[in-house]
C-alpha cells in the first residue's frame, strides 16, 4: 500500500531530502500536501513535480508572490500564518512529516496528533518545548511519533534489541561541531561562514549554529528524554567527531548497541517513513574500510556551556525548556543577522533564562505565552547589547 505523506517544511534541508526518498520509492510513498514558510519558488517546482492535493505558504508576502492562478486543477492553496495547521487538518494523509524549524512547527504537530496521523518528526523544538504534553497527547490518541533526527533514529533502532526495562542508558553522539578542541577565546568572534562550516553534516543554518554551540545536543537530550521515557541522568553525551555511530543504547547486561551509517539524513528520514520495516537504501552507503578509526571524547562543558544550560533547564522542567528553546532561536537569529557575536549566545541565553518564572504543570496556551515572553525578553537583551559601545 502506498503511504500518503503530508510534508511541512518541504523546501528546507530535511524537506528536500524527504522528497529524494519519495523519488527513490514512488511505489511506496505519495505526496498529498506540501508547505513552506517563504520559499515559494522551490514550492512551485515541487508542486509541478509531485501534484499534491494541498499546498500552503505561511508567509503572507511569499504567498502574494506565488502564482496561485497558474496552479494545476485540483490543487488547493492555503496561505498565512495558520496555513500549516489548516493543511494538517485538510490533507488526507497517513503520515505528517514535520520538517519545519523552530516554534512554527508547534501547532501543526499537535493538530496532526489530534487527527491521529502518524508523525515523522524533525522539528526538534516541538519535543523540546512541550515534549511531555506532546507524548501524552500522542499516547492518548495512539499516535506513534517517529524521530527523524539521526541520533534519535539510531536510538529507536538500537531499542529494537531489548525491552524498555532492560535499558541502562542512552548514549547520544555529538560531532563536536567546527570548534571542537578550541577554547572560547578562539571562537568568541567567529564569522557566520566559519560557524556554518560543519565538519560532517550538511544542514540548515539554525541547526548548524546550534551544533557549533552544542545547544543542539542539549535539545536532543531533552528530545530523547521525552521520546523514549528515559530519565535525564541516564542520557549521556559523548563526542565522536567522525559521526559514523549515530547513537547507542546500553542494556543492563552491559551490551552496547550502536547504529552506524554515512552522515546522510536520507537514511533516518527513510526509516521514519518506513518504520518498522526497512526498504532499499536511498542515501549514501557507509564503507567501513574507508574509516580508519572511531574516536570518543567527553564533551567540554566549560567551552560549550549551552549543553550544561540545556541539561539544567531540562531538570527544572515545566515551561523552562520551552522558554530556553525560543530564547536560543532569537539569539541564533540575532547572530545570523550580525547583531551579536558567537560567544554571546550562551551568555545571553543564561541571562534570559534567569528572568523566567517556571510553570510546572502547563497547557498549550501556557507554551504560546512563554513563547511570546521569551522572545520579548531575549530581544530586549539583544537590543541592549547592540547599543553598548
Ligand atoms: Mg541530530
Overview in brief:
This protein is an alpha/beta fold and 389 residues long.
Q: Note the main sheet.
A: 7 strands, parallel
Strand order of the largest sheet: 4-3-2-1-5-6-7
Helix run count = 16
Content-based structural category = alpha/beta
Stretches where pLDDT is under 50 for at least 5 consecutive residues are none
Cα radius of gyration in angstroms: 20 Å
Bound molecules: magnesium ion
CATH architecture of the largest domain: 3-Layer(aba) Sandwich
CATH homology-level superfamily of the largest domain:
NAD(P)-binding Rossmann-like Domain
- Please report the total strand number as a whole number: 11
**CATH fold naming of the largest domain:** Rossmann fold
For the record, what CATH class of the largest domain applies?
Alpha Beta
State the separation between the terminal residues, measured CA to CA.
Answer: 63 Å
Mean pLDDT: 95
Shape verdict = globular
Residue share in β-strands = 5-15%
Number of domains: 3
SSE pattern: EHEHEHEHEHEHEHEHHHHEEEHHHHH
- Helical residue percent? 40-55%
Description:
The protein is an alpha/beta fold and 389 residues long. The chain has helices at residues 13-24, 40-50, 60-65, 83-90, 106-115, 124-141, 150-159, 184-187, 192-195, 205-213, 215-228, 266-274, 305-316, 320-336, 344-353, 364-387, and strands at residues 3-8, 29-36, 54-57, 76-79, 95-98, 118-121, 145-147, 167-174, 235-239, 245-251, 256-260. Strands 4-3-2-1-5-6-7 form a 7-stranded parallel sheet, with helices on both faces. A 4-stranded mixed sheet has the order 9-8-10-11, covered by helices on one side. Helix 11 (215-228) packs parallel to helix 13 and helix 15 (344-353) crosses helix 16. It binds magnesium ion (MG). Residues 149-151, 220 line the site of magnesium ion.
